[in-house]
Design a protein that fits this description.
With 447 residues, the protein is mainly alpha-helical. The chain contains 18 helices and 6 strands. Helix 7 packs parallel to helix 8 and helix 12 crosses helix 17. It starts with 9 loop residues before the first strand and ends in a 22-residue tail after the last helix.
C-alpha cells in the first residue's frame, strides 16, 4: 500500500478582526491570524489573544476550540456519495474503511504510532515484539485477583494500569522517543491479556495463557473464550469482525478520553499514568458504554415484545425519557463511516448465529423503521458504529460487561499515538482559563 502524501497546513492571508468594545478606554480592533487546515476549514489562531489583549474566550465544553495541532486523524462530518450523505474518517490520510477491510488492527496501530504502514520486515518485527510482551507478570495477575468479583471491569482495569505504572514507568525516559515507543508496544501487547484475565476473574475461572501461533485478535478470543478443559477454535469470521471493530475504534480525534490523555501528558506524566486517566474518562456512560446500552435496549424490546412503531414514537417524543441508543453521532452530519463498513459483516455473522436471530430481527426492524422515518433522516440520526459493534460482539460470544474494556483495548493505540505526538511536538502544559462567576470578595469574620 502506498504511503500518504502529506499536505501542509496553509496560512491564510486573511485576518479575523476582533472589535474590542470600550471598557476603560477607546474601542480598538485586534487582528487574529486565520489558518486553513488540509480540508479548507478556517481556524482563528488565538494563542496570543490573552497575552496581547487581556481577553479570554469562553467556550464551554471546548466545542469550538482546537486544543492541539495533529496529523493523526481526520474527520469530515458529511460528504455526498452515491449512497447518500456520509461522514468520512481517516487515519494518517488513509480511509478507515480501507484500513478496516484491508489491514489488521496491529498494522493500523503501527500506522498511528509510527506515521506509515509497515512493510513486511517492519510488521514482522513489530508483531514479534507484541508477542514477547503479551505475558502478564505475577504482580499484575495478583492485582486483578485482588478485586472483588462484583467489581466493575473498568475499575479493575484502572487499578491494574496503576499497578503497571508503579513497576514500569521508572524504567522509561519519556524524553526519549525509543523509550516511548517501547512502552507503547508493551501496552498494546498487554491490554488483551489484561482484558481476558479480568473477565476470567469475574466469572471465577483460571486465566488462559497466550498462544504464539495466533495473531493479536485471535489470541485475545482464545484467552477470553477457552477454558482450562476446552480450547476453542476461533472462527475466522469472528476474528475478522472483532479486528475490524478494534481498527474502527482505534482513534477518533479529540474525544474526551483522548483529550485527557494529552492533557495529563502535558504535565510531563508518563504514558501509563496518562492512559490510566484516559481509561477513567472512557468509563463514563456518556463516552465508552454506548454499545452496551444498545444491547440492553434491544434485549428489553425483545423480552417485552415491544412494538417497533411505538418504540420509534417514544424516541421522537421529547417528553418521554426513553432514549434510542446507537443512532446519530455528535461529530457526523451523515452516516457514521465506521457503521457503514461494519454493517454488512455484522449482519452476515448474525444470520449464521441462530440463537441471536431474535436480536437480529429486532435490530433490523429498528434500523429500517428509523431509516424510513423523516424525523430521523432529516436530523441525520443514522445508525452509528455502536449500534453494530454491540450486536456483533455479543454474537461472537463477548460478554456485554467487557465491551468498554475492549473499547480501551482498541483506543489505547490512538491514545499512545496522541501521547507520542504531544511529546514529539514538545507541546506545552495545558492551562485553560475559566469564566469565574463566584463571589467577588467577602470578609472572614474570625474571632
Amino acid at each position: 500500500m502506498s504511503k500518504p502524501v502529506p499536505v501542509e497546513t496553509e496560512v491564510s492571508n486573511q485576518q479575523a478582526k476582533l472589535l474590542i468594545p470600550a471598557l476603560d478606554g477607546e474601542p480598538r480592533a485586534y487582528q487574529l491570524p486565520l489558518i486553513i487546515d488540509i480540508h479548507g476549514n478556517p481556524y482563528i489562531h488565538a494563542n496570543n489573544l490573552y497575552k496581547e489583549t487581556g481577553i479570554s474566550i469562553l467556550d464551554e465544553g471546548l466545542r469550538s476550540t482546537a486544543v492541539a495541532e495533529s496529523q493523526l486523524t481526520s474527520i469530515i462530518p458529511s460528504i455526498q456519495t452515491s449512497k447518500g450523505i456520509q461522514g468520512a474518517l481517516q487515519y494518517r490520510g488513509y480511509s478507515v474503511k480501507q484500513l478496516a477491510t484491508s489491514c489488521s488492527f496491529l498494522e493500523t496501530s503501527y500506522l498511528l504510532i509510527y506515521g506509515d504502514l509497515p512493510d513486511e520486515a517492519e510488521f514482522k518485527e513489530f508483531s514479534e515484539s507484541i508477542k514477547t510482551h503479551r505475558i502478564l507478570d505475577k504482580q499484575t495477575e495478583d492485582m486483578i485477583e485482588g478485586f472483588d468479583k462484583q467489581t466493575n471491569p473498568m475499575i479493575i482495569l484502572i487499578g491494574t494500569m496503576s499497578s503497571l505504572a508503579s513497576r514500569y514507568e521508572d524504567n522509561y525516559d519519556m524524553h526519549q522517543a525509543e523509550d516511548r515507543k517501547e512502552l507503547a508496544i508493551r501496552l498494546i501487547a498487554k491490554m488483551p491479556s489484561i482484558a481476558a484475565n479480568i473477565y476470567k476473574h469475574i466469572i471465577g475461572q483460571r486465566p488462559i495463557g497466550s498462544e504464539d501461533n495466533l495473531g493479536h485478535t485471535a489470541n485475545f478470543l482464545h484467552m477470553l473464550l477457552s477454558t482450562q478443559t476446552t480450547q476453542i477454535s476461533v472462527e475466522s469470521d469472528h476474528i475478522k469482525v472483532l479486528d475490524m471493530i478494534l481498527t474502527l475504534h482505534a482513534d477518533h480525534q479529540m474525544a474526551v478520553s483522548t483529550y485527557v490523555a494529552r492533557c495529563v501528558s502535558s504535565a510531563g506524566t508518563p504514558s501509563i499514568s496518562s492512559i490510566t486517566a484516559a481509561i477513567a474518562a472512557l468509563s463514563g456512560p456518556l463516552h465508552g458504554g454506548a454499545n452496551a446500552q444498545v444491547i440492553s435496549m434491544l434485549e428489553d424490546i425483545e423480552e417485552n415484545d415491544q412494538d417497533i412503531p411505538k418504540i420509534i414514537a417514544r424516541a421522537k417524543d421529547s417528553q418521554d425519557p426513553f432514549k434510542l441508543y446507537g443512532f446519530g453521532h455528535r461529530v457526523y452530519n451523515g452516516m457514521d463511516p465506521r457503521a457503514s463498513v461494519l454493517r454488512e459483516l455484522t449482519l452476515n455473522i448474525l444470520k449464521k448465529e441462530s440463537e441471536n436471530s431474535p436480536l437480529l430481527e429486532t435490530a433490523i426492524q429498528l434500523e429500517e423503521a428509523a431509516l424510513n422515518d423523516p424525523y430521523f433522516t432529516e436530523r441525520n440520526l443514522y445508525p452509528n458504529v455502536d449500534f453494530y459493534s454491540g450486536i456483533a460482539m455479543k454474537a461472537i460470544g463477548i460478554p456485554v460487561e467487557l465491551f468498554t474494556v475492549i473499547f480501551a483495548m482498541s483506543r489505547v493505540s490512538g491514545w499512545l499515538a496522541h501521547i507520542e505526538e504531544h511529546w514529539s511536538n514538545q507541546d506545552g502544559l495545558y492551562r485553560p482559563k475559566q469564566f469565574y462567576t463566584g463571589l467577588k470578595e467577602r470578609p472572614l469574620n474570625w474571632p
